[in-house]
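dumping this here so i dont lose it
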């Protein structure tokens, strides 16, 4: 008989250090790890970089809890409730850095990391980048949603 190697969620989350990058919501809305997020809040593990395609309310909760320094995402909000209100406030108050992505570019970035590569090339964002419609992949501070 082998020893039980399982650990509690509390123990698993305690392995995450301040300043870590945390990917969540990668399977979209039906598999968002709210219990893990709430444990991050309980343990006050901060200075996090959050990564996700559609990050839903979990990102908003972690931002509201003051744990987030950076976000790499396609969208922060909730399909039913709309925008992430704490996310919007953090952007307007310049409390977080953001890196805009599409769902596809997030998937490519995660795949590249899993393969040990710095990136996977794609042409999917070429029009947006060349026309200056968006500033994908550029980390920046957003001054205000109102002033654009």
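and the seq i came up w/
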């Amino acid at each position: 008989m082998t020893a039980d190697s399982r650990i509690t969620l509390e123990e698993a989350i305690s392995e995450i250090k301040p300043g870590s990058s945390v990917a969540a919501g990668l399977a979209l809305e039906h598999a968002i790890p709210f219990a893990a997020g709430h444990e991050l809040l309980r343990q006050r593990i901060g200075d996090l970089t959050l990564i996700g395609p559609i990050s839903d309310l979990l990102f908003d909760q972690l931002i509201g809890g003051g744990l987030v320094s950076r976000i790499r995402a396609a969208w922060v909000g909730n399909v039913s409730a709309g925008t992430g209100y704490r996310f919007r406030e953090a952007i307007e108050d310049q409390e977080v850095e953001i890196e805009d992505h599409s769902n596809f570019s997030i998937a490519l970035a995660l795949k590249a990391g899993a393969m040990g590569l710095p990136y996977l090339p794609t042409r999917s964002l070429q029009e947006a980048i060349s026309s200056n419609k968006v500033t994908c992949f550029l980390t920046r501070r957003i001054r205000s949603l109102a002033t654009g």
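Strands lie at 21-23, 48-54, 68-75, 77-78, 82-83, 97-100.
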